[in-house]
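[job 4417] fold queue: 2 targets
>>> target A
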Amino acid sequence: MRVVIWAVVAAVCLLVSAAPSSARGPYGSITVGNWKGGAFTDDKSGTFTHCSAGSTYQSGIFFMVAIAANGSWRLGFAHESWRLTPGEAFPLALTFDGQPAFNVYGMPLGTTLVNVEMPVNCSLINQFRKARQMTAFAQGQLFQFNLNQTGQLLPALLNCVMSVKKNGVASAGEFAVAAKPVAAPQAAPAQSAPNPPQKQARGGTGTGFVVSSTGHVVTNHHVIDGCSEITGNLSGEAPVKLRLVSSDETNDLALLQAPSPFKDVAKIRQNAIPVGNGVVAIGYPYHGLLTSDFTVTTGIVSSLSGILNDTRFLQISAAVQPGNSGGPLFDLGGGVVGVVAAKLDAVRVARATGSIPENINFAIKTGALRDFLDNSAVQYQIAEWHDASKRETSEIAKDARGYTLLIVCKVNEQSAGAKKP
C-alpha cells in the first residue's frame, strides 16, 4: 500500500504543477490523528505545488486531502484492487452524515487512484468541512470514513500552504494548528487538605445571552458539553440553574432556559454586517482571575468567513479570551451580529510560521443562530439596522448588562486517584 500512497501524492503533484513531473517531499509535517503529510514541490523545478495529508483505512482504501498553491482543493482515493482506465470519468457517490448523496466524477490518474476536484464555494466542500462521517460508493463497494479530525486537518493544510508560500519549504515545520475554543477553566482553590477519593465538581465558565422573553439563553455547545449542572447569572446577581433545551455541535450552539424570564432580551440583527464595520464583544474572560464583572472589547469585522473560507463565521479583530465563548458580538447599534466562538491558537501558529498572529478571532454568524432558534421554536427579537442607529460603546454595554450572563458548567467526576467507572 505504501507504493499506492506515494503514487497518489505524485499524481496530485502532476495536477497542480505547471508541467508534468514528480513530487518531492514531504517538507515539514502534518500530523493530525492518523492523517500524515506535509508540503510538496515539483521535482524538477523545485516550485512549491501543494500541501496534502492522507490516511489508510481498514478497508484498504487510501484517502487524501490536498490544497494546491493556488488554493484549489482536491481529494484523492486509491485502492490496490481497482483497475481503472486513465482518462475515463470515475463515478463516485459521496454521502456526509446520512444526507443526500453527491454524485461526482473523479479522474483516474493511474490504474488504482482517482482525483476529485473540489471547488472552494461548492456545497460539497462545505458538507465535507463539517461532517463527521463520509461514505463513498465506487466500483460496487461502499467505503466508510471517519471525519472527526477534519476540523483540525483542514486548518493545518491551509496553514501549510500559507506558511510555505511566505517562508519557503526550508522553514517548514509542524503545520497542525487549530482554532481554539475560548471557554475558561474554573479557578481551583489555592490549597486544600488531602481527602479520600470522592466525587467533586469540576468544569469551566463561558458567556451566554438572553434571546427570548421566556428565559431562553444562547451559548456555545463547547461551553456546556458534558456538564452535569449549568448555572447562569447576570453581573452582580445570584446564579440560577439553567436546563439544556437543545444543542448543535456542528455549529457550536446551545440553547438553555432559566426557570423564570429575565427583564431584558438581546435583539438579533437580521441583515448581514459588512466587512470593515465596527463590532463590540462582551463576555466573562478569565472569570475569578481578572474580574467578576464582564469585559468589553471593540474591533472590526476583518472577514466574512472563518478558517478555510467557512462562511458560517465572521473573523473579527475584537480581542477575546478564555471565557468569552458564547458571548454576544454587537454592531455599533447594539444588535447581535454573532456569537463569539473561538480564537486562533497564537502559540501553535507561531511555532509553525515563526510569526505571532494578532487579533484573529471568530464569531458564529446570525444566519446560523437564527436557523438554530427557528428550529428550536424560540421567538426572538429582531434589531433593524440603519446608519442613525450608531451608539456609544458605553450605552451598548449598559444595555447588555441586563441580558449577558456568566455561564458556569459543573461536571461531577471522580477526583484524582479514584477509579473511573
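>>> target B
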Amino acid sequence: MVVSGGGEQVGGERLRRWRMVLGGGDGDGTGCALGGRDVGMDAALGALYGGGGEGKGRSRAAGLGGSAPAVARWLGDIRAYFPSSVVHVMQRDAIERLGLSALLMEPEMLEAVEPDVHLVGTLLSLNKAMPDTTRETARAVVRKVVEQLEKRLAARTWATLTGALDRSARISRPRHHDIDWDRTIRANLKNYLPEYRTVVPERLVGYGRAARAVKKEVILCIDQSGSMAASVVYASVFGAVLASMRSIATRLVVFDTAVVDLTDQLDDPVDVLFGTQLGGGTDINRALAYCQSKITRPADTVVVLISDLYEGGIRDEMLKRVAAMKGSGVEFVTLLALSDEGAPAYDHEHAAALAALGAPAFACTPDLFPEVMAAALEKRPLPAP
C-alpha cells in the first residue's frame, strides 16, 4: 500500500486528537508528543478532566487547586484555546465536577467567566448567599445573557404571534388576501357541484386583523425547582417579550411549595429572574389554583405550565383543575422543559394523565416555543416534537 504525504498528514492529525483525548502517559498507545499551542490546550483539559494521577509520564495535572487566581487563569486559558460553545460546556463541567460555586461569589471570578444560560441558573441558585458586591456583578452577567436571548428570540416571537393573533379573529366579509380558504371550503362543502368538481363559496370565512385592544391572555406558570433552571431563564425572557405585545395580557407565576406572581416585574426579565428562588419542593396544584383564580376570559386564555411534573401536592386535585380549565375553554399547554437540552427526567404517570385530558406534555426548545404559542392562540394542534 502506498500512503501519500496527505495521508500521513491525516493520520498524524488523528493521532494528535487521540492523544488530546487520552491525556498522555505510557498507556495511551499513541506515541504522539505535543508541542506549541497543544501543550496549553492539554493542560487546560487536564486541569478539569484529568484523572488525578501523578504516575510516570503522566502530563495531565488534575484539579485547579481551588483558588480564585488558579481558576481565573484557567478561565482565561480555555477562552483563548476553545470556541465559545466548548467554553460553556467546560465551565459547566468545572462548576459541577470541581465544586466552584463558592468562587462564583467573588466579583473578580464572575468577570472572568463566559456568560451563558447555565451560568445564570447557577448564579440564581446562589443569589441569597451572595454578598452585595457580588450581586451587582452577577446582575450584570445575567443582563448580558438576557439581552443576548432577547436579541435572538424577540423578533421571531413577535412576527409569529402577531400573525397568529390576526388569524385567530374570524370575519365573514374578508378581503381577498384575508380569506381562510381551508375553513371557507369546509363551511361550503354542501355547495359542492359534482359536474364542475368545485365548491361554490356562498359564505366566506376570513382572518381578522388584530386590534390594539387585548385579544388574548397568557399565563406562564413556571416550576422553579432546581432542575428547571434553564427553563426559568428562557421563560422569563419570553414572558417579557409577550408582555411587550399590546394584544396579549401576560401573567408570569413561579412556584415551588409557595406561589409568587412576578407579573409586575415583566418589564425587566432580570428583575424576574432575581425574584425567583431556585430549589425547594413542588406544589403544582397550588400554583394552578392561583392561575385558575386569575382567569377572567377562559375562551381567550392560554395557560402554559412549565414543569417536570414531579408533584409534591395533591395529584388528583391538580388533574381536576386542568380538566376544569380545559372544560371552560382554556387552552392548556404542558412543557416538560423550555431549553435546548431535550427532554429532562419527568413524571411519566402525570404526563400520561395530562395527555388523556388533551394536554400532552413535551419538551420544547426556545426556537420552537413561538410556534407552540401560535398554535395555542389559534386553537389548533400543537407542534409537539
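[job 4417] complete. Note on B: The beta strands are 170-171, 192-193, 198-199, 206-207, 216-223, 248-255, 259-261, 301-306, 331-338, 361-364.
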